[in-house]
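Notes, p. 3: input format for complexes.
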Amino acid sequence: MSDCLFCKIIKGEIPSSKVYEDDMCYAFNDISPQAPTHFLVIPKEHISSAAEITAENSVYVSHIFEVIAKLAAEKGMTDGFRVVNNCGESAGQTVHHIHFHVMSGRAFTWPAG
Ligand code: 5GP
Ligand code: ZN
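Output follows (113 residues plus zinc ion):
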């Protein structure tokens, strides 16, 4: 989508701090980190939210979770990490291109507020 912030980041039209990239996904540091490590993983196909996952596009989600496990191991996130997806306005979704927050380096409370 031409007016999507994260599609622009994938295309390099908006700069970002790259963590990882392959043919299906892109990972980059969050501009407003909520933990010592906080990056976002997004599919290269525009999917607006978790409510739009289908049998046709769910391969992106499974792939992203494989990548998260690989990055967590590479980065030594052995104390644990949190993966967050906000879906919809009331859940706090502000960018309407599905993204998974990966955070680590501090203790997290539950349930999340
Ligand atoms: P949401 O609130 O939709 O779950 O998460 C959106 C995230 O995108 C926020 O954590 C926010 O800090 C991050 N973000 C918004 N704009 C940019 C940007 O231009 N660059 C980067 N790297 N992160 C962004
Ligand atoms: Zn997009």
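The radius of gyration is 14 Å.
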